[in-house]
Amino acid sequence: xxxxxxxxxxxxxxxxxxxxxxxxxxxxxxxxxxxxxxxxxxxxxxxxxxxxxxxxxxxxxxxxxxxxxxxxxxxxxxxxxxxxxxxxxxxxxxxxxxxxxxxxxxxxx
Length: 109
Hints:
The protein is built from 2 helices and 9 strands. By secondary structure, it is an alpha+beta fold. It is globular and about 35 Å long. The two termini are 17 Å apart.
């Protein structure tokens, strides 16, 4: 459903450890909400367990939680992590987005 690169998975594992989240079922919630300059915004949140009706899958030993509504907008999305002298952060490549804003956190379909 969502493709997580190895770099992104390593960063998420590091964030979980930094926040002392060692729960076996913990992972990253990826979601879409209304807002942003293009209509929809991506969201990320570290959580200790899945919610009812969530899709869950593991990539590079990182558990991803995805609610059914967000899954409609995120199918086939790739999440990468980049760290350079100029910028660092998660980079989202969503094949369902017809337009994105300059900041990369907002999109439209």
